[in-house]
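Record pair follows.
FIRST:
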Amino acid sequence: MFIDIHSHILPDIDDGPKTAAQSLELLECAVKNGIDRIVATPHFYASIHSLEQHTAKAKDRFLELDSLIKDNKLPLSILLGYEVRYFDGISRIDSLDRLCINKTKFILLELENIPFTDTVIDEIMNLKYYGYTVILAHIERYAKTRGFNNIKKLIDSRVVYAQCNASSFIEGPFRRTANRLLKENLVSAVASDMHSVEKRPPKIREAMEKIENKLGALKKDRLLRKTERLYELMKY
Protein backbone atom coordinates (compact mmCIF):
# COMPACT_ATOMS: atom_id res chain seq x y z
CA MET A 1 0.00 0.00 0.00
CA PHE A 2 1.13 3.57 -0.71
CA ILE A 3 1.33 6.83 1.22
CA ASP A 4 0.43 10.12 -0.48
CA ILE A 5 1.78 13.22 1.30
CA HIS A 6 0.66 15.81 -1.29
CA SER A 7 -2.93 15.88 -2.52
CA HIS A 8 -5.75 18.28 -3.27
CA ILE A 9 -8.76 16.29 -2.11
CA LEU A 10 -10.73 18.69 0.07
CA PRO A 11 -13.89 19.96 -1.62
CA ASP A 12 -14.44 23.59 -2.54
CA ILE A 13 -11.26 25.10 -1.16
CA ASP A 14 -8.74 25.32 -4.02
CA ASP A 15 -8.36 24.07 -7.60
CA GLY A 16 -9.14 20.50 -6.55
CA PRO A 17 -12.63 18.96 -6.25
CA LYS A 18 -15.51 21.41 -6.18
CA THR A 19 -17.99 19.14 -4.40
CA ALA A 20 -17.90 16.42 -1.76
CA ALA A 21 -19.09 13.95 -4.39
CA GLN A 22 -16.06 14.77 -6.55
CA SER A 23 -13.76 14.37 -3.54
CA LEU A 24 -15.29 10.97 -2.83
CA GLU A 25 -14.80 9.90 -6.45
CA LEU A 26 -11.15 10.97 -6.28
CA LEU A 27 -10.61 9.06 -3.04
CA GLU A 28 -12.16 5.95 -4.52
CA CYS A 29 -9.70 6.29 -7.40
CA ALA A 30 -6.86 6.61 -4.88
CA VAL A 31 -7.92 3.41 -3.12
CA LYS A 32 -7.92 1.58 -6.46
CA ASN A 33 -4.39 2.90 -6.99
CA GLY A 34 -3.26 1.26 -3.77
CA ILE A 35 -3.17 4.39 -1.60
CA ASP A 36 -4.30 3.94 2.01
CA ARG A 37 -2.82 7.00 3.77
CA ILE A 38 -3.22 10.54 2.45
CA VAL A 39 -2.20 14.01 3.56
CA ALA A 40 -4.68 16.60 2.33
CA THR A 41 -2.68 19.67 1.33
CA PRO A 42 -4.85 22.48 -0.04
CA HIS A 43 -3.00 25.48 -1.42
CA PHE A 44 -2.19 28.39 0.87
CA TYR A 45 -1.19 31.68 -0.75
CA ALA A 46 -0.37 34.41 1.76
CA SER A 47 -1.06 37.04 -0.91
CA ILE A 48 -4.74 36.09 -1.25
CA HIS A 49 -5.69 33.97 1.75
CA SER A 50 -6.50 35.02 5.29
CA LEU A 51 -4.71 32.47 7.46
CA GLU A 52 -7.50 32.52 10.04
CA GLN A 53 -10.33 32.06 7.54
CA HIS A 54 -8.53 29.65 5.25
CA THR A 55 -7.40 27.27 7.99
CA ALA A 56 -10.89 27.33 9.55
CA LYS A 57 -12.45 26.45 6.19
CA ALA A 58 -9.88 23.72 5.58
CA LYS A 59 -10.61 22.16 8.96
CA ASP A 60 -14.35 22.10 8.22
CA ARG A 61 -13.76 20.52 4.80
CA PHE A 62 -11.36 18.01 6.32
CA LEU A 63 -13.89 16.89 8.95
CA GLU A 64 -16.56 16.65 6.26
CA LEU A 65 -14.35 14.45 4.12
CA ASP A 66 -13.25 12.30 7.05
CA SER A 67 -16.91 11.60 7.80
CA LEU A 68 -17.51 10.67 4.16
CA ILE A 69 -14.61 8.23 4.30
CA LYS A 70 -16.04 6.55 7.38
CA ASP A 71 -19.62 6.54 6.05
CA ASN A 72 -18.49 4.93 2.80
CA LYS A 73 -16.09 2.57 4.60
CA LEU A 74 -13.13 3.52 2.46
CA PRO A 75 -9.94 1.78 3.66
CA LEU A 76 -7.84 4.89 4.06
CA SER A 77 -6.93 7.55 6.58
CA ILE A 78 -6.23 11.25 6.06
CA LEU A 79 -4.22 13.96 7.77
CA LEU A 80 -4.57 17.71 7.26
CA GLY A 81 -1.78 19.94 6.04
CA TYR A 82 -1.22 22.62 3.40
CA GLU A 83 0.85 23.26 0.33
CA VAL A 84 2.29 26.61 1.34
CA ARG A 85 3.61 28.88 -1.38
CA TYR A 86 6.78 30.60 -0.26
CA PHE A 87 6.40 34.23 0.80
CA ASP A 88 8.83 36.80 2.17
CA GLY A 89 9.15 36.51 5.93
CA ILE A 90 7.69 33.01 6.13
CA SER A 91 10.15 32.00 8.84
CA ARG A 92 9.16 34.93 11.06
CA ILE A 93 5.39 34.58 11.41
CA ASP A 94 4.15 33.34 14.78
CA SER A 95 1.22 31.40 13.33
CA LEU A 96 3.20 29.24 10.91
CA ASP A 97 2.43 26.13 12.97
CA ARG A 98 -1.16 26.34 11.73
CA LEU A 99 0.04 25.61 8.20
CA CYS A 100 2.02 22.52 9.16
CA ILE A 101 0.94 18.94 8.63
CA ASN A 102 -1.18 17.41 11.39
CA LYS A 103 -0.06 19.97 14.01
CA THR A 104 3.56 18.83 13.71
CA LYS A 105 6.52 20.90 12.51
CA PHE A 106 6.40 19.49 8.96
CA ILE A 107 5.61 22.01 6.27
CA LEU A 108 5.10 21.34 2.55
CA LEU A 109 6.64 24.32 0.77
CA GLU A 110 6.03 25.29 -2.84
CA LEU A 111 8.90 27.11 -4.57
CA GLU A 112 7.83 26.92 -8.21
CA ASN A 113 8.54 30.19 -10.05
CA ILE A 114 10.33 31.55 -6.98
CA PRO A 115 13.87 32.80 -7.78
CA PHE A 116 16.29 30.76 -5.66
CA THR A 117 18.05 33.77 -4.15
CA ASP A 118 20.22 33.97 -1.05
CA THR A 119 17.21 35.45 0.77
CA VAL A 120 15.08 32.41 -0.04
CA ILE A 121 17.85 30.05 1.06
CA ASP A 122 18.27 32.04 4.28
CA GLU A 123 14.52 31.79 4.98
CA ILE A 124 14.63 28.02 4.48
CA MET A 125 17.63 27.78 6.79
CA ASN A 126 15.76 29.86 9.37
CA LEU A 127 12.80 27.48 9.18
CA LYS A 128 15.18 24.65 10.00
CA TYR A 129 16.70 26.68 12.84
CA TYR A 130 13.26 27.29 14.34
CA GLY A 131 12.52 23.58 14.35
CA TYR A 132 10.52 23.15 11.15
CA THR A 133 11.01 20.27 8.76
CA VAL A 134 10.63 21.55 5.19
CA ILE A 135 9.45 19.30 2.38
CA LEU A 136 9.84 20.90 -1.02
CA ALA A 137 6.82 20.14 -3.21
CA HIS A 138 7.30 18.72 -6.73
CA ILE A 139 10.98 19.64 -6.69
CA GLU A 140 11.58 18.21 -10.15
CA ARG A 141 9.82 21.24 -11.64
CA TYR A 142 12.59 23.62 -10.60
CA ALA A 143 15.62 21.64 -9.38
CA LYS A 144 17.37 22.09 -12.71
CA THR A 145 16.55 25.75 -13.33
CA ARG A 146 17.16 26.87 -9.72
CA GLY A 147 20.60 25.28 -9.53
CA PHE A 148 20.76 21.55 -9.01
CA ASN A 149 23.84 21.77 -6.79
CA ASN A 150 22.16 24.27 -4.44
CA ILE A 151 19.15 21.99 -4.07
CA LYS A 152 21.40 18.96 -3.60
CA LYS A 153 23.36 20.72 -0.87
CA LEU A 154 20.18 21.53 1.08
CA ILE A 155 18.93 17.96 0.78
CA ASP A 156 22.27 16.32 1.57
CA SER A 157 22.59 18.44 4.71
CA ARG A 158 19.01 17.48 5.69
CA VAL A 159 17.86 21.07 5.71
CA VAL A 160 14.98 20.02 3.45
CA TYR A 161 13.35 16.88 2.08
CA ALA A 162 12.25 16.55 -1.52
CA GLN A 163 8.92 15.36 -2.92
CA CYS A 164 8.37 14.52 -6.59
CA ASN A 165 5.06 14.07 -8.38
CA ALA A 166 4.18 10.57 -9.53
CA SER A 167 3.22 11.83 -12.98
CA SER A 168 6.78 13.11 -13.55
CA PHE A 169 8.10 9.54 -13.54
CA ILE A 170 5.54 8.47 -16.11
CA GLU A 171 5.67 11.17 -18.77
CA GLY A 172 6.22 14.87 -19.41
CA PRO A 173 9.10 17.37 -19.45
CA PHE A 174 10.32 16.70 -15.89
CA ARG A 175 10.87 12.98 -16.22
CA ARG A 176 14.64 13.16 -16.68
CA THR A 177 15.11 15.49 -13.69
CA ALA A 178 12.86 13.36 -11.47
CA ASN A 179 14.83 10.23 -12.31
CA ARG A 180 18.12 12.02 -11.71
CA LEU A 181 16.97 13.22 -8.29
CA LEU A 182 15.86 9.74 -7.35
CA LYS A 183 18.97 8.08 -8.73
CA GLU A 184 21.08 10.34 -6.49
CA ASN A 185 18.92 9.43 -3.45
CA LEU A 186 17.58 12.97 -3.10
CA VAL A 187 13.86 12.12 -3.11
CA SER A 188 12.05 11.22 0.11
CA ALA A 189 8.53 10.88 -1.27
CA VAL A 190 6.65 10.42 -4.51
CA ALA A 191 3.15 11.85 -4.18
CA SER A 192 0.15 12.19 -6.47
CA ASP A 193 -0.53 15.93 -6.19
CA MET A 194 -3.99 14.77 -7.29
CA HIS A 195 -6.60 17.39 -8.18
CA SER A 196 -9.35 15.47 -9.95
CA VAL A 197 -10.04 12.19 -11.70
CA GLU A 198 -9.78 13.99 -15.06
CA LYS A 199 -7.12 16.65 -14.46
CA ARG A 200 -4.57 14.91 -12.27
CA PRO A 201 -5.57 11.49 -10.92
CA PRO A 202 -3.49 9.51 -8.42
CA LYS A 203 -0.86 7.43 -10.24
CA ILE A 204 1.57 6.38 -7.53
CA ARG A 205 1.35 2.68 -8.38
CA GLU A 206 2.19 3.36 -12.02
CA ALA A 207 5.06 5.64 -10.99
CA MET A 208 6.50 2.95 -8.73
CA GLU A 209 6.36 0.44 -11.57
CA LYS A 210 8.27 2.88 -13.79
CA ILE A 211 10.84 3.49 -11.04
CA GLU A 212 11.37 -0.22 -10.48
CA ASN A 213 11.75 -0.88 -14.19
CA LYS A 214 14.26 1.94 -14.66
CA LEU A 215 16.20 2.01 -11.39
CA GLY A 216 15.48 -1.36 -9.79
CA ALA A 217 13.46 -2.79 -6.94
CA LEU A 218 15.99 -1.77 -4.28
CA LYS A 219 15.67 1.90 -5.25
CA LYS A 220 11.88 1.68 -5.19
CA ASP A 221 11.83 -0.09 -1.82
CA ARG A 222 14.24 2.41 -0.31
CA LEU A 223 12.01 5.26 -1.46
CA LEU A 224 8.92 3.64 0.06
CA ARG A 225 10.72 3.23 3.39
CA LYS A 226 11.75 6.91 3.36
CA THR A 227 8.15 7.97 2.80
CA GLU A 228 6.97 5.65 5.56
CA ARG A 229 9.40 7.21 8.03
CA LEU A 230 8.32 10.74 7.11
CA TYR A 231 4.67 9.85 7.46
CA GLU A 232 5.16 8.22 10.85
CA LEU A 233 6.74 11.43 12.12
CA MET A 234 3.80 13.43 10.76
CA LYS A 235 1.29 11.35 12.68
CA TYR A 236 2.34 12.67 16.10
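SECOND:
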Amino acid sequence: MNMETVETENTTVQSDADQVEILGLEEFRKKEPGICSIRHIDKVISKPEFCKASNFRGLVYGTFVIPSKKNLQISHNIFAFCLTPDKLYFIDEGSKVRKKVRAMEEEYDNEIRTPLVFLLDFMEYLIREDLYVLQGYEKTLSQLAERMNAGTVADTGKDFMYMRSQLNALYTYYEQLSNMAQTMEQVVVQSGDETAQTLLSLYIQRVQHLAQMTHTLKESLTQVLDMKQAKLSERQNDLVNLLTIVTSIFTPLTLITGWFGMNFVNMHLLKEPWGYTSVIVFCVILTLAEILVIRNWKIFRKQ
Protein backbone atom coordinates (compact mmCIF):
# COMPACT_ATOMS: atom_id res chain seq x y z
CA MET A 1 0.00 0.00 0.00
CA ASN A 2 2.99 2.29 0.78
CA MET A 3 0.81 4.94 2.35
CA GLU A 4 2.64 7.42 4.57
CA THR A 5 0.64 8.90 7.38
CA VAL A 6 1.24 12.43 8.59
CA GLU A 7 -0.01 13.31 12.07
CA THR A 8 -0.68 16.95 12.83
CA GLU A 9 -2.28 18.75 15.71
CA ASN A 10 -5.67 18.67 14.01
CA THR A 11 -5.50 14.84 13.86
CA THR A 12 -5.40 14.79 10.04
CA VAL A 13 -3.93 11.76 8.32
CA GLN A 14 -3.21 11.77 4.60
CA SER A 15 -1.70 9.43 2.05
CA ASP A 16 1.11 10.30 -0.34
CA ALA A 17 -1.37 10.51 -3.16
CA ASP A 18 -3.63 12.72 -1.06
CA GLN A 19 -6.46 10.23 -1.62
CA VAL A 20 -7.34 9.20 1.94
CA GLU A 21 -7.79 11.53 4.89
CA ILE A 22 -8.95 11.02 8.46
CA LEU A 23 -10.60 14.00 10.14
CA GLY A 24 -12.72 14.90 13.10
CA LEU A 25 -16.29 15.96 12.43
CA GLU A 26 -15.68 19.69 12.86
CA GLU A 27 -12.52 19.49 10.76
CA PHE A 28 -14.42 17.78 7.99
CA ARG A 29 -17.13 20.45 8.11
CA LYS A 30 -14.50 23.18 7.75
CA LYS A 31 -12.70 21.41 4.92
CA GLU A 32 -15.81 20.40 2.96
CA PRO A 33 -18.47 23.01 3.77
CA GLY A 34 -20.24 22.34 0.48
CA ILE A 35 -20.78 18.68 1.35
CA CYS A 36 -21.80 19.39 4.92
CA SER A 37 -24.25 22.05 3.77
CA ILE A 38 -26.38 19.19 2.43
CA ARG A 39 -28.54 18.56 5.45
CA HIS A 40 -29.15 14.83 5.16
CA ILE A 41 -25.45 14.11 4.57
CA ASP A 42 -24.40 16.10 7.63
CA LYS A 43 -27.11 14.42 9.69
CA VAL A 44 -25.95 10.93 8.75
CA ILE A 45 -22.22 11.44 9.35
CA SER A 46 -22.74 13.34 12.59
CA LYS A 47 -24.97 10.70 14.24
CA PRO A 48 -23.90 7.18 13.23
CA GLU A 49 -26.52 4.65 14.31
CA PHE A 50 -25.74 1.57 12.21
CA CYS A 51 -23.84 0.48 9.13
CA LYS A 52 -25.26 2.15 6.05
CA ALA A 53 -24.22 3.75 2.77
CA SER A 54 -26.00 6.27 0.55
CA ASN A 55 -25.34 7.70 -2.90
CA PHE A 56 -26.10 11.34 -3.69
CA ARG A 57 -24.90 13.15 -6.82
CA GLY A 58 -21.65 11.27 -7.14
CA LEU A 59 -20.98 11.26 -3.40
CA VAL A 60 -21.00 8.02 -1.43
CA TYR A 61 -21.36 8.58 2.30
CA GLY A 62 -22.35 6.53 5.27
CA THR A 63 -21.43 5.18 8.66
CA PHE A 64 -19.88 2.13 10.27
CA VAL A 65 -21.00 0.80 13.64
CA ILE A 66 -18.76 -2.22 14.08
CA PRO A 67 -19.48 -4.50 17.05
CA SER A 68 -16.51 -5.59 19.08
CA LYS A 69 -16.09 -9.34 18.77
CA LYS A 70 -15.42 -9.55 22.53
CA ASN A 71 -18.69 -7.88 23.52
CA LEU A 72 -21.13 -7.31 20.68
CA GLN A 73 -23.69 -5.58 22.88
CA ILE A 74 -21.50 -2.87 24.42
CA SER A 75 -18.30 -2.00 22.57
CA HIS A 76 -18.47 -0.56 19.06
CA ASN A 77 -16.14 1.11 16.61
CA ILE A 78 -18.20 4.02 15.32
CA PHE A 79 -17.16 6.34 12.49
CA ALA A 80 -18.41 7.81 9.23
CA PHE A 81 -17.02 8.09 5.71
CA CYS A 82 -17.50 10.23 2.62
CA LEU A 83 -16.23 9.18 -0.79
CA THR A 84 -15.82 11.86 -3.45
CA PRO A 85 -14.55 11.18 -7.00
CA ASP A 86 -10.97 11.98 -5.96
CA LYS A 87 -10.78 11.50 -2.18
CA LEU A 88 -11.94 9.26 0.66
CA TYR A 89 -12.66 10.87 4.01
CA PHE A 90 -13.00 9.00 7.29
CA ILE A 91 -14.75 11.03 9.99
CA ASP A 92 -13.68 9.78 13.37
CA GLU A 93 -13.46 11.57 16.72
CA GLY A 94 -11.07 9.00 18.16
CA SER A 95 -8.14 7.05 16.81
CA LYS A 96 -9.77 3.72 15.98
CA VAL A 97 -9.90 4.28 12.22
CA ARG A 98 -6.29 5.45 12.20
CA LYS A 99 -5.21 2.27 13.99
CA LYS A 100 -7.13 0.09 11.56
CA VAL A 101 -5.69 1.93 8.55
CA ARG A 102 -2.17 1.46 9.87
CA ALA A 103 -2.79 -2.22 10.59
CA MET A 104 -4.21 -2.61 7.10
CA GLU A 105 -1.17 -0.84 5.64
CA GLU A 106 1.18 -3.25 7.43
CA GLU A 107 -0.78 -6.31 6.29
CA TYR A 108 -1.52 -5.36 2.68
CA ASP A 109 1.45 -4.77 0.40
CA ASN A 110 -0.21 -3.02 -2.52
CA GLU A 111 -0.33 0.62 -3.52
CA ILE A 112 -3.50 2.69 -3.38
CA ARG A 113 -5.08 2.89 -6.81
CA THR A 114 -8.26 4.84 -6.22
CA PRO A 115 -10.19 5.98 -3.13
CA LEU A 116 -12.99 3.61 -4.11
CA VAL A 117 -10.64 0.61 -4.19
CA PHE A 118 -9.16 1.67 -0.86
CA LEU A 119 -12.62 1.82 0.72
CA LEU A 120 -13.48 -1.65 -0.59
CA ASP A 121 -10.16 -3.01 0.69
CA PHE A 122 -10.86 -1.41 4.05
CA MET A 123 -14.36 -2.92 4.22
CA GLU A 124 -12.94 -6.33 3.45
CA TYR A 125 -10.25 -5.83 6.08
CA LEU A 126 -12.90 -5.18 8.74
CA ILE A 127 -14.41 -8.66 8.33
CA ARG A 128 -11.25 -10.64 7.54
CA GLU A 129 -11.26 -12.54 10.88
CA ASP A 130 -15.01 -12.86 11.39
CA LEU A 131 -15.03 -16.39 10.04
CA TYR A 132 -12.80 -17.50 12.91
CA VAL A 133 -15.11 -15.79 15.40
CA LEU A 134 -18.08 -17.73 14.03
CA GLN A 135 -16.07 -20.96 14.09
CA GLY A 136 -15.45 -20.28 17.79
CA TYR A 137 -19.21 -20.06 18.38
CA GLU A 138 -19.69 -23.27 16.42
CA LYS A 139 -17.11 -25.09 18.56
CA THR A 140 -18.73 -23.82 21.76
CA LEU A 141 -22.16 -25.02 20.63
CA SER A 142 -20.77 -28.45 19.75
CA GLN A 143 -19.20 -28.76 23.20
CA LEU A 144 -22.45 -27.73 24.88
CA ALA A 145 -24.40 -30.30 22.87
CA GLU A 146 -21.93 -33.06 23.81
CA ARG A 147 -22.04 -32.13 27.49
CA MET A 148 -25.81 -32.00 27.38
CA ASN A 149 -26.02 -35.47 25.87
CA ALA A 150 -23.73 -36.68 28.63
CA GLY A 151 -25.95 -35.02 31.23
CA THR A 152 -23.16 -32.83 32.63
CA VAL A 153 -24.60 -29.40 31.82
CA ALA A 154 -25.51 -27.31 34.85
CA ASP A 155 -27.50 -24.09 34.86
CA THR A 156 -26.42 -22.51 31.57
CA GLY A 157 -29.49 -20.42 30.84
CA LYS A 158 -27.61 -17.12 31.08
CA ASP A 159 -24.86 -18.41 28.79
CA PHE A 160 -27.40 -19.45 26.19
CA MET A 161 -29.19 -16.11 26.31
CA TYR A 162 -25.90 -14.24 26.04
CA MET A 163 -24.82 -16.30 23.03
CA ARG A 164 -28.20 -15.77 21.37
CA SER A 165 -27.91 -11.99 21.79
CA GLN A 166 -24.37 -12.11 20.37
CA LEU A 167 -25.44 -14.05 17.29
CA ASN A 168 -28.43 -11.76 16.75
CA ALA A 169 -26.13 -8.74 16.86
CA LEU A 170 -23.72 -10.34 14.38
CA TYR A 171 -26.51 -11.31 12.00
CA THR A 172 -27.90 -7.76 12.05
CA TYR A 173 -24.40 -6.41 11.42
CA TYR A 174 -23.88 -8.61 8.35
CA GLU A 175 -27.29 -7.72 6.99
CA GLN A 176 -26.36 -4.05 7.27
CA LEU A 177 -23.04 -4.66 5.50
CA SER A 178 -24.89 -6.49 2.74
CA ASN A 179 -27.19 -3.51 2.25
CA MET A 180 -24.16 -1.21 2.14
CA ALA A 181 -22.56 -3.33 -0.56
CA GLN A 182 -25.74 -3.29 -2.64
CA THR A 183 -25.85 0.51 -2.43
CA MET A 184 -22.22 0.77 -3.51
CA GLU A 185 -22.71 -1.69 -6.35
CA GLN A 186 -24.33 0.97 -8.54
CA VAL A 187 -21.42 3.36 -7.91
CA VAL A 188 -18.85 0.68 -8.70
CA VAL A 189 -20.57 -0.26 -11.94
CA GLN A 190 -20.74 3.37 -13.02
CA SER A 191 -17.04 3.85 -12.25
CA GLY A 192 -16.06 1.16 -14.75
CA ASP A 193 -13.20 0.10 -12.45
CA GLU A 194 -12.75 -3.64 -12.97
CA THR A 195 -10.65 -3.97 -9.82
CA ALA A 196 -13.38 -2.34 -7.76
CA GLN A 197 -16.02 -4.57 -9.35
CA THR A 198 -14.00 -7.69 -8.50
CA LEU A 199 -13.41 -6.56 -4.92
CA LEU A 200 -17.06 -5.70 -4.39
CA SER A 201 -18.21 -9.02 -5.83
CA LEU A 202 -15.90 -10.93 -3.50
CA TYR A 203 -16.98 -8.76 -0.57
CA ILE A 204 -20.67 -9.41 -1.20
CA GLN A 205 -20.04 -13.16 -1.38
CA ARG A 206 -18.08 -13.11 1.86
CA VAL A 207 -20.67 -11.04 3.75
CA GLN A 208 -23.50 -13.27 2.52
CA HIS A 209 -21.52 -16.34 3.58
CA LEU A 210 -20.97 -14.87 7.06
CA ALA A 211 -24.66 -13.97 7.35
CA GLN A 212 -25.70 -17.48 6.30
CA MET A 213 -23.24 -19.05 8.74
CA THR A 214 -24.56 -16.84 11.54
CA HIS A 215 -28.13 -17.83 10.68
CA THR A 216 -27.12 -21.50 10.79
CA LEU A 217 -25.53 -20.98 14.20
CA LYS A 218 -28.72 -19.35 15.46
CA GLU A 219 -30.70 -22.39 14.32
CA SER A 220 -28.16 -24.71 15.96
CA LEU A 221 -28.45 -22.74 19.19
CA THR A 222 -32.22 -23.09 19.04
CA GLN A 223 -31.82 -26.86 18.65
CA VAL A 224 -29.46 -27.00 21.63
CA LEU A 225 -31.94 -24.99 23.69
CA ASP A 226 -34.72 -27.37 22.65
CA MET A 227 -32.49 -30.27 23.65
CA LYS A 228 -31.88 -28.68 27.03
CA GLN A 229 -35.60 -28.12 27.53
CA ALA A 230 -36.25 -31.75 26.60
CA LYS A 231 -33.69 -32.89 29.18
CA LEU A 232 -35.32 -30.75 31.85
CA SER A 233 -38.75 -32.09 30.92
CA GLU A 234 -37.40 -35.64 31.09
CA ARG A 235 -36.03 -35.05 34.59
CA GLN A 236 -39.31 -33.54 35.70
CA ASN A 237 -41.19 -36.53 34.30
CA ASP A 238 -38.86 -38.86 36.21
CA LEU A 239 -39.58 -37.00 39.44
CA VAL A 240 -43.31 -37.07 38.77
CA ASN A 241 -43.16 -40.82 38.08
CA LEU A 242 -41.23 -41.41 41.30
CA LEU A 243 -43.72 -39.40 43.32
CA THR A 244 -46.60 -41.22 41.63
CA ILE A 245 -45.10 -44.62 42.45
CA VAL A 246 -44.58 -43.64 46.10
CA THR A 247 -48.12 -42.27 46.29
CA SER A 248 -49.54 -45.43 44.68
CA ILE A 249 -47.77 -47.63 47.21
CA PHE A 250 -48.66 -45.67 50.32
CA THR A 251 -52.25 -44.76 49.46
CA PRO A 252 -53.66 -48.21 50.48
CA LEU A 253 -51.52 -48.13 53.64
CA THR A 254 -52.85 -44.68 54.45
CA LEU A 255 -56.40 -46.02 54.01
CA ILE A 256 -55.70 -48.93 56.39
CA THR A 257 -54.14 -46.75 59.08
CA GLY A 258 -56.98 -44.26 58.77
CA TRP A 259 -59.57 -47.00 58.96
CA PHE A 260 -58.18 -48.67 62.05
CA GLY A 261 -57.36 -45.32 63.59
CA MET A 262 -61.09 -44.65 64.14
CA ASN A 263 -61.02 -46.92 67.25
CA PHE A 264 -64.71 -47.78 67.38
CA VAL A 265 -65.68 -50.01 70.32
CA ASN A 266 -67.06 -52.84 68.20
CA MET A 267 -64.22 -52.93 65.64
CA HIS A 268 -62.78 -56.41 65.14
CA LEU A 269 -59.09 -57.14 65.81
CA LEU A 270 -58.73 -54.27 68.29
CA LYS A 271 -58.95 -56.59 71.31
CA GLU A 272 -57.37 -59.62 69.63
CA PRO A 273 -53.77 -60.32 70.72
CA TRP A 274 -52.77 -61.12 67.14
CA GLY A 275 -54.62 -58.15 65.58
CA TYR A 276 -51.70 -55.72 65.47
CA THR A 277 -49.35 -58.34 64.04
CA SER A 278 -51.84 -59.44 61.40
CA VAL A 279 -52.31 -55.86 60.20
CA ILE A 280 -48.53 -55.41 59.90
CA VAL A 281 -48.20 -58.63 57.91
CA PHE A 282 -51.12 -57.66 55.67
CA CYS A 283 -49.56 -54.23 54.99
CA VAL A 284 -46.20 -55.79 54.10
CA ILE A 285 -47.84 -58.32 51.76
CA LEU A 286 -49.93 -55.57 50.16
CA THR A 287 -46.85 -53.39 49.60
CA LEU A 288 -44.90 -56.25 47.99
CA ALA A 289 -47.87 -57.07 45.78
CA GLU A 290 -48.10 -53.44 44.61
CA ILE A 291 -44.38 -53.37 43.80
CA LEU A 292 -44.67 -56.59 41.79
CA VAL A 293 -47.69 -55.27 39.90
CA ILE A 294 -45.92 -51.99 39.06
CA ARG A 295 -42.80 -53.87 37.94
CA ASN A 296 -44.52 -56.56 35.87
CA TRP A 297 -46.97 -54.19 34.19
CA LYS A 298 -44.14 -51.69 33.50
CA ILE A 299 -46.22 -48.91 34.97
CA PHE A 300 -44.44 -45.50 34.96
CA ARG A 301 -41.51 -47.00 33.08
CA LYS A 302 -39.91 -45.12 30.16
CA GLN A 303 -40.96 -46.39 26.78
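COMMENT: The radius of gyration is 35 Å.
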